[in-house]
Every structure is written in C-alpha cells, then in structure tokens.
Specification:
Elements (H helix, E strand, L loop, with lengths): L2 H13 L5 H15 L3 H17 L1 H9 L6
Helix pairs in contact: 1-2, 2-3
Length: 71
C-alpha cells in the first residue's frame, strides 16, 4: 500500500472518529522513513493531529445524517 493510500484510509477512519492502530503504525513507519524523523516523534506528531480531527467526528457525522442521500 502506498503512503497516499495509507493517508486516505487513515483520514477516512479518523474523520468518522475511529482510530485503527495497525493502520496508523504503518503510516507512521512510512512517514518516518520518508522524512527521516524518528518513529516515536512521527507517532507523537501524527497522534496529536489525528486526535484533534477525531474529536469533532460526532458533530460532523450528526450534520451529515441530517441530510440523507435518497436514490
């Protein structure tokens, strides 16, 4: 899986308030390798960003649910 695919998959999960540790670990490894950062530092940075995004999931999902898609 490419780093782009990992980013999209992670973003999709976190947008909905779901954290998938195995997926995030793969992403951290790829980010650390791509940037030369220490894996622990990359994890801490990513965890903070994902945590802030996930916090707003209930509001986003509630808003989306107010506008259901009907075929």
């Amino acid at each position: 899986m490419s780093i782009e695919e990992l980013l999209v998959s992670t973003a999709d999960k976190v947008w909905k308030g779901k954290r998938v540790q195995d997926l995030e670990d793969l992403l951290v490894g790829r980010l650390a390798a791509a940037t030369g950062a220490e894996p622990r530092a990359a994890y801490l940075e990513l965890d903070g960003v994902l945590g802030r995004i996930a916090e707003g999931a209930d509001g986003r999902l509630g808003f989306q649910a107010a506008f259901p898609v009907h075929p």
